[in-house]
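Recall that a protein's primary structure is simply its ordered list of amino acids. Everything else, from secondary elements to tertiary packing, is in principle encoded there. The following example makes that idea concrete.
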Amino acid sequence: MSQSDRDVKPPIGASVGASFDVHGVVGIEVEPGTPGESQLRDMLAPFLGVSHAPRRITVGGKVSRASGRSHAENAYRFTGESLFIHADRVQILQTPDGYRVEGAGELLTAVIPLLDRLCVQEEAAMIHAAVVDFRGSGVLLPAWGGVGKTSTVAKLVAMRDVRFMADDWAFMGGGGMLLGYAKPMFLKPHHRTIYPELFRGTRKPLAPGWLTAPVANLATAVHPVIVRYPKTAAFTRRWSPEHRMVQPERVFGSNRISSAAPAQLAIFLERFDGADARLEARSTQWMTSRIVGNFHSELPMVSRRLVEALGATGLVPLEEHFGQKAAVVRRALEDVPCYLLRLPADWSADRASDFVAQLVRSRLDK
């Protein structure tokens, strides 16, 4: 397998537009000439195709003129149906079936929270989690960033008849169905022992392990500025020494990718200052609260700023959105065993992922 087969590259040439169908729930239309099309194609690639979904997001590069807008100091300009965030140079317009997103930057950070909002209105919700189809049973592993989700799915999918669904973002329906999101995986130096074949041969240089955290912190700090400039952001994603972007089907094979499975097990993963792993049963309400809070916390700063602006201006009242999302997640978790698994902070990704994989197998492979 060549480098071009493994590494995700942005499309070359002028923007021609794109359509995406997110599990038949939300359609996304990117207009020709939209500067952020390259990133949207990369990150929404699993959903590429014409959509007839009831909810829709339209994305364009030109910001429409609006009149009679209210001022929230220097942060926002808004009406009852529109919001312009000056710092991010992005405008959101409410439409009869969803939203329109306008701006010259990379607009994925605006699309994701709006996608989550529209999913909630259709009895689904976005989550921050690793998800696998374990021989027909959906396994949900929500976690904080850096706990070991990407490492864990490798160990699980290595088992017979277990298929990849997501290693970062996914969806769950109120009826208890987990829905996959096989977006590009971001492999870092500590994944070398877990995905050795992806680190063989000539590749772009990656920062050594001891530099991973400082490089990641720098990337997080500059992200709100970089996303304003799509070409610079695309170059940074492709050549960043922090990670390597790889499509899941290149890692596991297209026959090892699953799009949906009924939820049968939920384990929230976190690291802690302890010597031994601890598994603790938790209630549905506890897991619901963690899933809703964790997703919001793990959004990029620009996305969180948009959510707060929508709430502050009354376009999407926060108590309404979070309450409705919690209700969807709670219904999805009915009769699903829920646990908290605390893993020692000093365990390597390899050791932690081995432990989680064996635990999941012991719970479901009976």
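The two ends are 36 Å apart (CA to CA). The chain has one domain: 3-364.
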